[in-house]
Amino acid sequence: MTSYWDAHHETMSRDQLAEIQTKRLKTLVERVYTSVPFYRQAFQEKGITPGDIKSLEDLKSLPFTTKKDLRDTYPFGLFAVPRSEIVRMHASSGTTGKPIVVGYTKKDLDTWSDLVARCFSMAGGTKEDVVQNAYGYGLFTGGLGIHYGAERLGATIVPISGGNTARQIMLMQDFQTSILTCTPSYALYLADEIHAAGVDLGTLHLKVGIFGAEPWSNNMRRQLEEKLGIRAHDIYGLSEVLGPGVAMECPCQNGLHVFEDHFIPEIIDPVTEQPLPYGEKGELVFTTLTKEGFPVIRYRTKDISTLYPEVCECGRTHLRMERITGRTDDMLIIRGVNVFPSQIESVLLEFGETEPHYLLVVDRKASLDDLEIQVELSANMFSDKIAGLEVLERRLRERILSVLGISAKIKLVEPKSLPRSEGKAKRVIDRREL
């Protein structure tokens, strides 16, 4: 059955949504022009004043915001309220330069908790559930965002954070966990360890997994659902826009509903920066409509997706975004072909003889790019004859060539030999000097 946390906003007509978005967009533009010098300057450089924004159609005339802008204004340059009104700050774990700092007012935290509760409810969660939260707690938005959303729902939250897998499994059994929240790659690792420990899935109370923070394919979804005996939902968010709770899959599992009463999504061509129509793949861009402390206008996420306007079978009217297939900045260009790790993952998971653990090693030999795909064999295939493994290698190689249009070396490795991750999985080693 479909359950709503906020049926009024989740099912309102497109015209009603547009009316709310227009009103909130006008208020947002006026506020950032007045309160944020960065945006005032950006508007002036484009020759725009708040009065020029009269409808949603005028959104495309507003400037973009990029991750570089957020770093250049570190730490508080994009805050739209006095620092004394900020009650919590999160920061990215940027590997180069300064991190990205985001601030929340008390109202922002209330809004965030409400949207994450909306996500839980969409997945069938209720106050009767026990939520085991294995997202990391700290400066990342994942752990605390999920935590307070579960509390807003009224569920029992187990704030275990990431890691300590043996303890995760013990508490999952003893606390009768019904909802698991973590990255999909860690969920797979947990599933393998549950199996290795000889735990009977029938003794667990798991029914739902809410997984995000990294791209994952529908093939991985099927693996997770089979191995854990759950229904797996994709959740989307990023610190710069809010954190988890920007968009969520309903039980139809046919795209993630973007909560348009709080965010305006766009798809643009990442090269020309021009908006693309519904149904076309491109870079996802968000404008926040209700954030007080750290609003952003047309933030370029670098995530690749597609937007669909059709009303979902669940009754929700908000746009659906296709699950993230990759990012413009982690896209691999191999011999002129654009390749995302999630595309390769989807191919690998078509084959029952391999496990969903892989590593892409990219190198450059004699001026030519070379791609090696290391993938773990399933336990029953590991003891197979050499001839059988050679046949599997050839089938994988041919399938990769057919789907992606590039040739790759396939290296079959023994089970559990590739590194495991308790957070975002490291899928690529790029040794090229580009």
Short description:
By secondary structure, the chain is α/β, with parallel strands linked by helices. It has helices at 7-11, 14-35, 37-45, 67-72, 106-122, 142-153, 165-174, 184-196, 218-228, 341-348, 379-382, 386-404, and strands spanning 88-91, 101-104, 130-133, 156-158, 179-182, 208-211, 231-238, 243-249, 256-258, 263-268, 282-288, 299-305, 307-308, 320-321, 326-327, 332-334, 337-339, 354-365, 368-377, 409-413, 428-430.
| Rounded average pLDDT | 93
Strand order of the largest sheet: 4-3-5-6-7-8-9-14-13
Estimated radius of gyration: 22 Å
Uncertain stretches: none
> How far apart are the first and last residues' alpha carbons, in Å?
51 Å
Number of β-strand runs: 21
Shape category: globular
* Main sheet attributes: strand count, strand direction, barrel closure: 9 strands, mixed
Count of helix runs: 12
